Amino acid sequence: MLDALQYEFFRNALAAGLLASVICGIMGTLVVVNRIVFLSGGIAHAAYGGIGLSFYFGWPYLAGTIGFSLASAMVMAAVTLRARHRADTIIGVIWAVGMAFGIVLIDLTPGYNVDLMSFLFGSILTVPRSELWIMVILGMLVTALVVLFYNDLLALSYDEEFARIRGVPVRALYFLMIGMLAVTVVMIIQVVGLILVIALLTIPPFIVERHAKSLIQMMVGASLLGVVFTVAGLTLAYRFDLTSGAAIILVAGGGFFLSMIMERIGAGRRRIGASPGD
Fold it and tell me: How far is residue 118's CA from residue 63's CA, in Å, rounded to a whole number?
């Protein structure tokens, strides 16, 4: 892959993938621990409405998509807090309507032929330097907020009642977390697309969760693992002329199944070691 680094587009792609991996490790940890994977999927697919709005009105892609995603995420967050028994249904509706809204707006955009596949499966090789700097700023903002509210997010993630007793503004913090998740999702869409966004957001934290002794360890481990998956996926995509987003997720999926196999082997060995005959 070293010879590919002579191309600016590949260097930009690698930088975008590394940024997304680190932010996925941080926010994905909160997603896995708080069990809001389905909500993340709702935000990701509703974001397509923001993509359609951006192209229809000629807005900057990131600005329009983040704005629409934040609005959708706030609605979903409110629903999960006020009507938990109906949350899955309502999130599913917002998910579907957001995608349909975006597709219709793209169809109505005059004189513009949009490559839908690039949004469904990512377009990391076309990320320009200008958007790369925006990703850096947004990534630093999300990271700073997580560091600032780390103790409160820790309490919220593992014991909501304890967090309330401590005086943590649970509702406000939950909305903040979902807002940061929306920003993260929009960033990842450029790397792996709408279809595969949840995999990159959840697979590394899921693998690391069993071995981490704290939330911060889980975030760091998931970020590093995401970097490994991204670099390996980009290398495969370059060598075999594959779609980069799909290659990254295939590597991550391979890591997921390998971790499951290793866990089963380890569990079997422990059962044998603990048998009465020993």
Answer: 18
Query: Which residue matches tokens 């590597």?
Result: 251
State how far the alpha carbon of 152 is from the alpha carbons of 70, 139, 167, 238, 263, in Å.
22, 20, 9, 42, 32
As a whole number, mean pLDDT of residues 199-214 equals: 93
Q: Select 2-272's CATH number: 3.10.450.50, 1.10.3470.10, 3.40.640.10, 1.10.3720.10.
A: 1.10.3470.10
In this predicted structure, which of 1-5, 120-124, 233-237 has the lowest mean pLDDT?
1-5
Query: Mean pLDDT over all residues of the chain?
Result: 88
Model-wide pTM > 0.85: yes
Token pair 């009465």 is at which residue?
276
Quick check: 185 and 201 in contact, CB under 8 A?
Answer: yes
Query: What's the pLDDT score for residue 113?
Result: 61
CA distance 238 to 243: 9
CB 43 within 8 A of CB 94: no
**Percentage with pLDDT > 70 across the chain:** 96
Q: Give the residue extent of every domain in the chain.
A: 2-272
Q: Quick check: 174 and 84 in contact, CB under 8 A?
A: no
Band the pLDDT of 275: cuts 50, 70, 90. Answer: low
Sorting pLDDT into bands at 50, 70 and 90, what band is 114? low
